[in-house]
């Protein structure tokens, strides 16, 4: 009999709110966070829209209480804010060494937001050099662990846009295998010129508000965010008598093995990931009440994902929506913020709307939930796919 | 059913060339601050249409992976799990420079696509048509050990029967100038082996090391991976407890360890952790490997190859002896690594 | 026109890093994608930048590339009609 894994805390920052409560309020009132880029200079400012957190780095430093010379990049700062909230909700103290604790974070840009500012000036300006080491992806995770005062199993996953789903998956498995009693899992990614220009070269950025699963979708809006969940073993939860927000019912990862960036036409990897998640959860497709889709609003993703949904659910595709029109695509953090949204859907009995949807896609008859829907939600399936064919599915259930 | 974890194949591309059974007696000690890998010919392995875009990190990864697969004779993989500290640095740097130098104009996608940390794992899967589980870890000096931990868990849980696991890191221009600027990497003028080192910083070595792991052994198994453990921070005074706790969980006495493999780099700032570790295994053979591989976040993968070699052959090549210990049958080998007092790891291998 | 075609072949080989292929290996009407030269969607994006950088032509929709990049002939034809530099 495998050990159950409960979620006892959640924390997040995104373009639609600096806490879980603020995010919920935006989701429930269809308030999207998509704007022009304000926090850094870019020549693409008038051509792209982003889900940007409207706090400058200085404002973030103050909020966290960092002192000069700290070396924490925006990615790390967003992560610290979100992780603190999650840990606070779960009421974690790191004083008892017998409770084996871990932190599995994820990021794709790491400290790139700082590197792209100072790459050439580092050699002339010793004042900046404390940031040099902050570039490496794992450093933001170290900084979050240090901020929390956490010592233990700490690592970082980077599988592009499915990263945080994989962090949650690894965390759940570390608890199930008995290696850890509790683990903080999630991801963080700041907006950067690097990713903005990168996605621009792929010609998959929309010049207007993204429209997931719409016939006339033109691409994605990039975003930035961080979110963390606290996962704890059944045994620890029972011992500490903690309220549980939801449990991690299933998970699966598969590789599309089709193309370095694009998804296959029939959504093979996505289909396999969902199948694996069903197998782990011992659920059948018809038990899923809501799908939080990856739904980036690129022509390729939504077609491929739609086809995978049809393969996995047949004619019974449940209510689904992509929340990326609210937040933008937050890359490594996406699966973490969407895990929080999935759990909120269960807690609040709400399916959050797929904003900006107008015209169904011609390839199939899949219509996303366009308005807020109040209904009982017991099981939510959340998809996240990344470059390199990386496909991940998580299933959360009512506890 | 609970599986175990056996090393069935090894592949590597290093500053000494590629992995072979006479690797150690052909190797020469690294004295340069940046040790570039000797690149094998890739043409036989990678289709021209794929190779033309690949940076050396991807090519090294594919080569080492295939070498391990060939040796293990495994075709069906249930997972491809990689670790990298710095990721696809060459492509990241190339794309970043293009942004900065051309003021965000005339940028092309290839280097951006390949700057993603999971590129090597993805390209291996793409080339093999492998739709299985595919993860990439990027956490400094425990990047490889994280990948190993994941592999071990999957094999133990019966979720996988065979897994490809490895570590890759590459050297690129400006990033390394910066690393030298802040003393992480020794400066180009310094020319010291690990044993001679009197300065701070490391001799950095790029490369890739891969393993095929299987849940059941064969006559050809190198060794069994008994357990792995990672820890983000550890005070020097906590080291003994950390090691003893790990061994206790695995029901192995410290006295049962026949040899240890340490990740010392010659960095005067932090090698004292290895000295302290060594004192706990005073009369045992202490082996090292970064004098041949160089240091990188995933050099410890090569450390595991070294330990596996020793267990399989039951011989310790004198070239890898840091400190001589008493002669005994080699049953358990314990690996310890850390970098700058952070990201500590222990890996326990057993003769199979 | 012939000059432009030769120039294009050279640039394509360079930009796409087509090792082992020379200008002589590419015929004007060879298909660049699929069975011909075997280029793919990432190469198409590289070629879009080549049009912008080399000839001052901006494509906003990658789908436009399909017809333009069919062969050296179609590319040269499109460039000569639309170039701004």
UniProtKB/TrEMBL annotation, chain A:
SMART domains the record matches = PKS_KS (SM00825)
Q: Which InterPro entries match?
A: Beta-ketoacyl_synthase, Ketoacyl_synth_AS, Ketoacyl_synth_C, Ketoacyl_synth_N, PKS_Beta-ketoAc_synthase_dom, Thiolase-like
Q: In this protein, which residues make up the domain named Ketosynthase family 3 (KS3)?
A: 2-398
Q: Which domain of life is it from?
A: Bacteria
Key words of the record: Transferase
What is the recorded name of this protein?
A: Beta-ketoacyl-[acyl-carrier-protein] synthase family protein
**A matching Pfam family:** ketoacyl-synt
Source organism of the structure: Sphingobacterium tabacisoli
Sorted alphabetically, which CDD domains does this protein's record hold?
KAS_I_II
Q: Which family does it belong to?
A: Belongs to the thiolase-like superfamily. Beta-ketoacyl-ACP synthases family.
UniProtKB/TrEMBL annotation, chain B:
User: Does the record's keyword annotation contain Amino-acid biosynthesis?
Assistant: no
Query: Which Pfam family would be a valid example here?
Result: ketoacyl-synt
- Keyword set for this entry? Transferase
Q: Does the keyword Transferase apply?
A: yes
Positions of the Beta-ketoacyl synthase-like N-terminal domain? 44-215
Classification via InterPro entries:
Beta-ketoacyl_synthase, Ketoacyl_synth_N, Thiolase-like
The source's superkingdom equals: Bacteria
**Name the UniProt record assigns to this protein:** Beta-ketoacyl synthase N-terminal-like domain-containing protein
Automatic annotation (TrEMBL), chain C:
* Residue ranges occupied by any Carrier domain in the UniProt entry: 1-85
For this UniProt record, the keywords arranged alphabetically read as follows: Phosphopantetheine, Phosphoprotein
Give the signal sequence positions: none
Gene3D superfamilies reported for this sequence: ACP-like
Family annotation (NCBIfam families): PRK09184.1
Q: What is this protein called?
A: Acyl carrier protein
Please report the organism this UniProt entry assigns to the protein. Answer: Sphingobacterium yanglingense
